[in-house]
Amino acid sequence: MSKGVGEAPGKILLIGEHSVVYGHPAIAMPVEGARARVEVDLARDGRIEIEAPDIAQRAVEGQPTPARLAPLQRLAGSVRELFGEPGVGLRVCVRSSIPVGRGMGSGAAVAVALVRAICAALDRKLADDQVEELAMEAEREFHGTPSGVDVAVTARRQAVYFVRGRTPQPIAAGESVFRFVIADTGIEAPTMAVVEEVRLARERDQARLDALFWELGLMASVAREIIRCGAPAEMGVCMSHAHAILKEVGVSSPELDALVHAALSAGALGAKLSGAGRGGVMIALVEDTAAEARVAAALRDAGAVGLFSAALSR
Ligand code: PMV
Fold first, then answer.
1. Which residues are CB-contacts of 263 (< 8 A; sequence separation ≥ 6)?
2. Pairing state of beta strands 48-52 and 89-96?
3. DSSP string, 177-224
4. pTM here?
5. Which residue, among 169, 142, 298, has the nearest Cα to 225 in the 3D structure?
6. Distance of CA 150 from the midpoint of ligand 1 (Å)
7. What is the pLDDT of residues 203-229, one digit of tens each?
């Protein structure tokens, strides 16, 4: 029986995390160096089995399903139903180099890769927005009320200007290359819990939180123009300012602040946490490859457990 493979990249949020949940714009881009890859083999027995060797988990029908794999098992079932193939068995193998729970969109990437792998195995096609709609099913289970930005970026594999509920707009960079170093604190921070804490903080002090979200949203719009014009130095200022606002929102941590400080001290143009915060990753914008090496070394010395890079260009 036939086999299908699907892949999808990780992502970083350049600006607009948390405020995007409340309807403000955000900018995010893929990280091609961190990827999810899903292989699907069809079987005749009608069973869906999922194996995730990187996290040493396995879901086999008739046995208790590990919490991390349950949304994927349901998603595989939905895709099979959509194609009118409820009786086909699926043997799924999920591999991913995207760290889990670090704000790099691992759940969204795995969901998109899974949908694509099933499509390939069944020799069917879906439009990007259909892939996104299906992947959002799993993303809702992973994150509660996700804005959808992770799924949009990983499915489209391009930088987007994203407003919840609207079609994401691709962002074209101007002349310059925007180079990012991504550093992992090694601390897993569940997005759903952090988003819920922010919701409660907003309930207590709505005017203050809404003003902070408004400022982040405004900066996302400004950043879009800065990227279009190709002005990395200005982008750096925006990013560092966004980090200061996210600290006020209450989602940074001593570890994230230490990495941001280390990156700026080593000459980064700007630095901020990326994703839900509390743990996860931070990003630093650097001028060129020499600065990239310098900043990466400083981040490692300051305790980063993993480093990635990403570049946004024309
Ligand atoms: O999945 P994360 O950690 O990158 O968080 C996504 C960003 C949030 O704005 C905090 C949540 C969301 O759904 O957009």
1. 181, 183, 271, 282, 284, 295, 298, 299
2. parallel
3. -EEEEEEE-S----HHHHHHHHHHHHHHSHHHHHHHHHHHHHHHHHHH
4. 0.93
5. 169
6. 7
7. 999 999 999 999 999 999 999 999 999
* Beta strand extents in 123-193 (DSSP E only): 160-162, 169-170, 178-184
Q: Is the CB of 24 under 6 A from ligand 1?
A: no
For the stretch 23-34, pLDDT in tens is: 999 999 999 999
- N-terminal to C-terminal alpha carbon distance within the chain: 42
Q: How many CB atoms lie within 10 A of CB 45?
A: 12
Query: So what's the pLDDT on residue 1?
Result: 62
> Which residue puts its alpha carbon closest to atom 13 of ligand 1?
146
The amino acid at residue 277 is G
84 Cα: distance to centroid of ligand 1 (angstroms): 33
Q: Where are the beta strands (DSSP E) in the chain?
A: 3-15, 26-43, 48-52, 57-59, 89-96, 160-162, 169-170, 178-184, 270-274, 281-286, 306-312
103 within ligand 1 shell (Cβ under 6 A)? yes
pLDDT band at 143; cut points 50, 70, 90: confident
> How would you class 14 by CB atoms within 10 Å of its CB: exposed for 0-12, middle for 13-18, buried for 19 or more?
buried
147 lines ligand 1 (CB under 6 A): yes
Q: Evaluate: CB of 18 within 6 angstroms of ligand 1.
A: yes
pLDDT of residue 144: 79
16 Cα: distance to centroid of ligand 1 (angstroms): 9
The whole-number average pLDDT for the span 257-265 is: 98
Cα 50–Cα 74–Cα 151 angle in degrees, nearest 5: 95
pLDDT the model gives residue 79 = 96
